[in-house]
Design goal:
Length: 297
Amino acid sequence: MPTEPAVLIAAAALLGLVVGSFLNVVIHRLPRMLEREWRAQCEELAGREPVAEPAYNLLVPRSHCPACKTPVRVLHLIPVLGWLLARGRCAACGAAVSPRYPVVESLTAVLFALAAVKFGAGWPLAGVLLLIAFLVALAFIDLDTQFLPDQLTLPLLWAGLAMSLFFGPAGDGGAGIGGAGDLPPALADAVLGAIAGYLVLWTVHQAFRLATGKEGMGYGDFKLLAALGAWLGWQALLPIVLIASVTGAAVGVALIVGRGRSREHPIPFGPFLAIAGWIVLMWGDALLPAALRGFGG
C-alpha cells in the first residue's frame, strides 16, 4: 500500500519520542548511579561501612523537579509536549527545566524516522534503532561527564557481534554496510571491526602519551569505536575516524577562536564518534567506496 512507508516513518518517530524520553533518564541518572557505586566501593576498600542511601536507579525514584523534589505530573511527562505545556518550568516551584529534555526526545524521533526511510521495515531497522538509541545516550553522557560508561559501550559491542552472528550473511560480507541487505555485516567483518576499532584509537592514545606525556583520550572512546566496528564492519572505521577527527578539530578551533576556550580544556571525543558512526550508518554506501579508494583499497 502507498501509505505503508508513511505509517512506518510515523511509527518510528513516535517510538523515537518515547525512547528519547527514556534516554533522558539514562543520561541523567546512569552517571549518578555509577558515582554511588564508586563511593560505596571506596568505603569498602577503606574498611568502612558504606553509607546507606535511598534507592536510586532508572526506575526509582519517580521523575521529579531537581529544585523542589516534587514529582512531575503525568501530563508533563509526555515527550516534548509536556515540556511545552509546562513552558519549560516546574509546575510546583517555577524552576526552569532544561531544554535538553525536548531536544533529546526530538532528536531521537528525527533519527528514528530517518532510519525508517533509509532501511524500511525488517530486522535491520530494529538493529539500527537500537544502535541509534545507544549513540544518543553515549554522546550526551560524554558531553556532560567526559565519560563513556562500560555499562553502555560493552553491551553495544556485544549486541553488534550478536547481530552479525545470528542475522549476518555467511562468509565475507564485503562492504559491511550501506543498505538493509548489508546490515548487519558478516561475522568476520564485525569481529575484525571490533578488534581494529579498539586498537586504532588505543595506538593513537599510546603514541600521543609517549610524545606529550599527557592523556589524549579515554578508554571509553576505544570501546565505542570497537562497538561501531562490530555494528558496521571494519570497512567503516576509516571514514568514522576521519569524520570524527575533522569534526572534532573544527569544533575545537571554533571554541578556541570564538569563545576563547583554553587549548588545555579537554573536549569529549565520544559525541564526534557517535555523529560519525551515524553518518556512515546512513550514507556509508556512498562514503565507503571513496574512502577505501583513497586508502588504496
